[in-house]
Amino acid sequence: MAISSGLLPSFGAVLSASVPLNCSISAIQSVLPVGADVDFVQTVAVNSTFEVPPENIAFPISPVGLPSLCAVSAWVQAPGNTSFGFGLFLPGDWNGRFLAVGNAGFAGGINWLEMGTQVRYGFATMSTDTGHSSNSTDGRWAYKQPEVINNWGYRALHGSVVTAKQITEAFYAQKPTYSYYSGCSTGGRQGFKEAQMFPDDFDGIVAGAPSWYTKHLQTWVIRYWLNNVPNTDAHHIPPELFPVIGAEALRQCDPQDGLTDSIISDPYNCNFRPEALLCGVETVASNSTAATCLTSSQIDTVKKIYSDWVEWDQRLIYPHVAPGSEASWGVWLLNSSVAPSTYGTDYVKYFLGLGPDWSPWSLNDSIVKFAEKDDPGNASVDTDLSAFQKKGGKLISFHGFADSLVPSAGTTYFYDQVDKNLKPQGIKTSDFFRVFMVPGMGHCGGTTPSFNASWYFAGGFQASLIGPTVHSVPGFSDAKHDILLALTNWVENGTAPDSVIATKWTNDTEHTTVLRQRPICRYPEQAKYTGSGDPNQADSWECRLPWEEGSGPLQNPGSVGSSVFHCSHILRILLVVIISSYSMMIL
């Protein structure tokens, strides 16, 4: 088997004396531990397609245009008379490294499509089926099946990684020099869980939009829905008004970061005033259902949507969605008067075991406390990552501010809690863990036409959104633009990323003409326009802390508003000084 570094940093390969395996069932079976068996082994020729088995309902799309490789499917026995399976792509032109990819939602199935993306780098690439068969929104398999839930929560990924590494080492007659992970959403949670629970599995992890706080997030989905139902009540906001709210959020929040460019750079610090959308007296008098304004009751609903879920003592249950996330409200959470997303209801019915007849209308604090105590599958992630840090692991997380499925503030909250745990131990969190928040990006990837934000940087699940044979960043395959290559550069060369440049093409699926690029900065830094140059060019921006000198508002270069802003700002300062001086005189 050839060994190639491809786009990755090179290393000195040291081969063992063992003989590499051939791509056959008997060869792979010979190296499996007791309790593990092969489903199938097949050779995939260069530029051909791996046909996903029809029973894989979670990830049915077949990867095309693959490099030559050996495809393996195997399963492993697990406690409680359960089992889990995994797939493994072993490329002929191997870069000497191992990489596992993540899953989605409640899905039970091997993510062959994402494996196809990562194997193009040259990784030996693996995915687990998490121990059951279902699509991502179906949680019925979990009912009264605690060991199956444990497989989904943590056991299947770890067990699959251990076994797949054994196969990889035997196949190439060499241990992988480095091991990596890439996932988003539930895949992001899986990455965090691996860092917390099995720190030796991976040298580096990219975890996007992590749904890490499972015991709170799934019930938050229901609470979020309850804000806007029933549909017959005066406070209900119909889906056709979501774009109206989104347009107003963009109008108000876009300029507050100092540059009007159709992107909300700092949505959680936007002073958004939804009252600007209040219907006028003419609309109220005519009892109109105009799709351009909101009633007072609907304004109250907007404020609830943009409010954290906290208990009476202000303990945070889950943070709210950000202004700018409105485009996906109707798709995920607020489009039905009958029931909310099954990401919420199936969790309570089948993971917590309250049964199929449980009604989301009966959500209360006792259910939240039960979820906290039970935490089915041990799926939620503890914020003490000291073991992963001591092992030398590196962790990168990213999250789109426009994500309404998993509110992005949950990721910065996680980082802050990790920092709070580790700093008293003398550990500098940013030395091993960095978070990148992405303005204008939705759940894991993509952006809306109203934003046209730079969003692509080869994160988990992103490549399949722009083309069936894409990997890395077309035209920009380096550690500055590719978050996975940034991770490998950090792990293998010690170069920690302070930013990753995100790309937006004029047509993302053609990805030939770049519309704009912008640095995505490591939290808590933000990208600030330098005041000169093309705002669509990455070098016109720099990463600064929000409170740093020079991080104040900036206007478009050469615009009329810039001089007006400058003069009015000076007048406001002078006015404050005069009033303050006068107040002190009369005290």
TrEMBL record:
Give the top-level enzyme category. Answer: hydrolase
Signal peptide positions (record): 1-16
The enzyme's E.C. designation: 3.1.1.-
Sorted UniProt keywords = Calcium, Disulfide bond, Hydrolase, Metal-binding, Serine esterase, Signal
Pfam families, A to Z: Tannase
Concerning InterPro entries, the annotation shows: AB_hydrolase_fold (IPR029058), Tannase/feruloyl_esterase (IPR011118)
Looking up SUPFAM superfamilies in the UniProt record yields: alpha/beta-Hydrolases
Does this UniProt record's set of keywords contain Isomerase? no
Please give the PANTHER family that the UniProt record associates with this protein.
Answer: CARBOXYLIC ESTER HYDROLASE (PTHR33938:SF2), FERULOYL ESTERASE B-RELATED (PTHR33938)
The protein in question is named: Carboxylic ester hydrolase
Q: What is the lineage of its organism?
A: Eukaryota, Fungi, Dikarya, Ascomycota, Pezizomycotina
